[in-house]
Amino acid sequence: MLARHQDPIVAIATAPGRGAVGIVRVSARAPLEALIHALCGQALKPRHAHYLPLRAADGTVLDHGLALHFPAPHSYTGEQVLELQAHGGPVLLQLLLARCLEALPGARLAEPGEFTQRAFLNGKLDLAQAEAVADLIDASTETAARSAARALDGALSTEVNALRDALIHLRMFVEATLDFPEEEDVEFVEQENVLGQLGGLQQRLAQILARTRQGALLRDGLQVVLAGQPNVGKSSLLNALAGAELAIVTPIPGTTRDRVSEQIQIEGVPLHIVDTAGLREASDEVERIGVARSWESIARADVVLFLHDLTRLHEPEYQREDERIRAQLAAHDDAAHLEARLLHVYNKADAAAAPAGGLSLSAKSGAGLDALRRELLQRAGWQSVPEGLFIARERHVRALRATLEHVQQAEAQVRLPALDLVAEELRLAHEALSAITGQFTADDLLGEIFGRFCIGK
């Protein structure tokens, strides 16, 4: 993708299907006057909407619509951009697309995310802002959309750049001391001063890392799997949480044969709830496949909600099955990780008393559901919506963790003291932090990031 970023590109910028309005977008380094004249038959005033006929090669009118010309560098991509807004019929938009490709020498269809990638390459957006464009489009909750808008506006980038400037300032003094130890006009880096700056950096990094984890949760959500024996109320609980009859509920054990999933939101945090087949020794091939898929979902879950039937806890056979499932869960994970992911919930609290300390509810009446929602948010690490929260990605979290680790290592080397190793750790911290906004980013990572965008954006 990066090798061809100088070609003129064309794409339909609206979603597939019929609509009231459809947009065809063009971006090119070279002037677009010839294309504009071929399509519109007149010059366009920059950044003004012109209502006019859009013409085919033989002069016939394809449609009447709006044409807007954004000269470089005052455009989304930083290049010459033409946008054609016509009626949103798929055939008509394909005709306009073909006309642009025909009338603009060297033009080709844009790849996914290529318009935004050009905005990044031309300095209109940094990488964190470019990612926020896709996150704003894909946002599944109002909170996520508002947070993505803040990231697009530069909230994350501003904080990262402030940290980067502090790192550069510290690197300047450390490396100057290493390079010119005999020069009187170079300020000597006092050990306590360096330790103070490193301590301040660690505190600021920890604060932004906590907020970034929250932002990543807003974007990615929480994977919650409902597990347990057949007929303990997993499908009823899914329906209760979703507020809709999504899963079939019957008294017959093994009704759910495959995964049923639904996305809900709690305080703006998306939760992906998966109802699975009951965990038992299956009696037929179809159910065996369903149980195998249940274990696959459990392995990927952030939270495994192990559901128990309060009305059957006293039954020896039920107890044996519960112990067997617990043993299987432990075999799929180490004890510490399992403890963090496993949440025991006792259903049918309207018919029997729950054991002390257990989280009980009634999927039928809805009692206890609010407590379950709060517990799920707590397991996710959600602490309500901080002021000015920005959406983030796991990539950002990993980069900030790496930065913090290098700063901590730098502090350890100062105490030795070993300024050459301090300088190296600060350099690595600088690179890790700058990867968030794209100053130090490999081309293959850019291809992966922008390849996930929709075509035309």
What's the short story on this structure?
Its main location: cytoplasm. This protein has 15 helices and 12 strands.
Account of the 3D structure:
With 457 residues, the chain is of the alpha/beta class. The protein folds into three domains: 123 residues, Gyrase A, domain 2 (2-Layer Sandwich); 127 residues, tRNA modification GTPase MnmE domain 2 (Four Helix Bundle (Hemerythrin (Met), subunit A), Up-down Bundle), CATH 1.20.120.430; 160 residues, 3-Layer(aba) Sandwich (Rossmann fold). The protein is 47% helix and 17% strand. The chain has 15 helices and twelve strands. The strands form two sheets. Strands 3-4-5-2-1-6 form a six-stranded mixed β-sheet, with helices on one face. A six-stranded mixed β-sheet has the order 8-9-7-10-11-12, with helices on both faces. The longest helix has 30 residues. It starts with 8 loop residues before the first strand and ends in a 7-residue tail after the last helix.
Give a quick account of the main beta sheet: strands, pairing sense, barrel closure.
6 strands, mixed
User: Strands across the major sheet, in which order?
Assistant: 3-4-5-2-1-6
Element pattern in H and E = EEHEEEHEHHHHHEHEEHEHHEEHHHH
Shape: flat
Enzyme class: hydrolase
Organism: Inhella proteolytica
Domain TrmE-type G: 221-381
Binding site for GTP: 231-236, 250-256, 275-278, 347-350
